[in-house]
Amino acid sequence: VFSFSMYWMVLTLGPIMVGASIAATSYVTSLQILENETLSGAFNLFLRWLPLLLSFFAFLGLYILVPNKKVHLAHGAMGAAVAAILFELSK
């Protein structure tokens, strides 16, 4: 029952999360405040890396929670990093 409910959740929330990620990325990149020099470098860097970090954690949750077998955190993190980078490049 757990695997079916997790599978159903991924099928239901997956497209919503992809749309939200694309919308958030386009919103952050269109902000005029990013071109303003008054922002600190750390905050500007955080805003630029935010979509990648959100994608990484979404894929990490997907790769750790969905399979029926136990997935080590390091293996899930490596897969999530590759998937997040490729997902952000495809946007």
UniProtKB/TrEMBL annotation:
Membrane topology annotation: Multi-pass membrane protein
Pfam families: Virul_fac_BrkB (PF03631)
Location (main, coarse): membrane
Entry's Gene Ontology cellular component terms: plasma membrane
Keyword Phosphoprotein set for record: no
Keyword set includes Thylakoid: no
Transmembrane segments: 6-34, 46-66, 72-89
Compartmental location: Cell membrane
Keywords linked to the UniProt accession: Cell membrane, Membrane, Transmembrane, Transmembrane helix
Protein name in the entry: Virulence factor BrkB family protein
Native source organism of the sequence: Vibrio parahaemolyticus
The organism's taxonomic lineage, starting at the top: Bacteria, Pseudomonadati, Pseudomonadota, Gammaproteobacteria, Vibrionales
